[in-house]
Amino acid sequence: MGNLFCKGKNYSRWKRRPMMSFIHNQASPTHIGIRTVEAENVCNFSTHSDLCISIATWNMNGQVSFEELADMVGSNREFELLAVGLQEAPKERKVATLLKEALHENYLNYNSLDTHNMIGKVIMGSLQLYLFGPSNAKRSSITELKMDKQSIGGFGGIIGRKKGAVAIRINYKGIRIVFISCHLSAHASKVEERNCECRHISHSLFSKNWNPYSRPSHITIWLGDLNYRLQGIDTYPARNLINNDLHQRLHGKDQLLQEAGRGQIFNGFCEGTLTFKPTYKYNKGSSNYDTSYKVRVPAWTDRILFKIEDESDIEATLHSYESMDEINGSDHKPVKAHLCLRLIRQRRLPPIIENSNSIINSNNNNNNINQLSS
Predict the structure, then answer these.
(1) Where is the Inositol polyphosphate-related phosphatase domain positioned along the sequence (predicted)?
(2) Is residue 29 a part of any domain in this protein?
(3) pTM (2 decimals)?
(4) Cis before residue 94, ω within 30 degrees of 0?
(5) Could you tell me if residue 17 is inside a domain?
(6) Which whole-number Å values give the CA distances from 41 to 271, 334, 361, in the listed order?
(7) Of these four, 113, 231, 278, 311, which has the most CB atoms within 10 Å of its CB?
């Protein structure tokens, strides 16, 4: 599992709580690291799924405009929940207002009434997470709604680039979901710091009022500016591959996939294939990579991951995973995903079969547990 603390960091100690660890519990004990999944482009909304979720993450670099938020949200409404995680965002009131206006504007353009309202938000300075749900949803659809935040450092820069994570835990229509939006330490050399921050966040969120009898989430969705870079390649060879649409050859250089493959972080998580170009660092106002004196190596710093706690309980289908190259207001490109969930119903066998099997098990001196009765 690696070191659980970063040397030189003033992190408070925590008691180990297995159910609260979002990055170490694996869906499959034989799988280490992040499982890459292909996106199934066709989503039959509300036909084959119990819940569809649209997820967006964007490091805004302190800038915001209505037009770009509207482009990021889009006009497609084939989802019930919309989660928007922002890093280096301006003041919360401005962002929240513009997000609501962007949703409303797109609804009007979509020839529809408002169908989604904000049902939860959590703010830690420039690190923000918003959750929207159907405006016509019954109150009984939400049986749990909790927020938490975890800082992993101080402030930096003019706008206060807060590092850490904000999270929302919700039980929506019987599906227990944890959304985590994070902003981790920058710079290519800070790999172990980022690993440690992931572990600290994982074990700290929702731990203050931890209930040992509460049921774990069905799925954890982790998004944000994770800040993992490309390792072992210089900027110009990397850019040449990207310019020739060969950026898939850079997957093996990705620090996040490397560290997960070593078993350090995100065991059992899934991620869509990185078919889009690295999302950082761009010249603001363009789709050209950094031309400053630093000429930074492009990297997939902005990611969306998810983990199913028990694959016998719920099925997840990823329908899209993409960057939004047309949005140029930041040095990062937004990333979006569309994820649909289906609860796997436990079918109860007819009573005559259950009873007959109970008799068989009794005749075997109760050596076996009756697997057919619930």
Answers:
(1) 49-347
(2) no
(3) 0.85
(4) no
(5) no
(6) 15, 19, 47
(7) 278
* Amino acid 45: pLDDT: 67
Residue 142 belongs to a domain with what CATH number? 3.60.10.10
The residues that bridge with 178 in the sheet, in sequence order, are 169, 220
CA angle 83, 90, 108 (to 5 degrees): 50
Cα–Cα distances in Å, from 216 out to 22, 49, 170, 177, 367?
A: 10, 21, 11, 9, 30
* 88-97, 241-250, 288-297, 301-310: least confidently modelled range: 88-97
Side chain identity, residue 23: I
Domain that holds residue 115: 35-343
Mean pLDDT, rounded, for 83-101? 92
Decide if 27 is inside a domain: no
Structure tokens of 97? 């207002």
Do residues 37 and 271 make contact, with C-beta atoms less than 8 angstroms apart?
Answer: yes
Q: Is residue 239 part of a domain?
A: yes
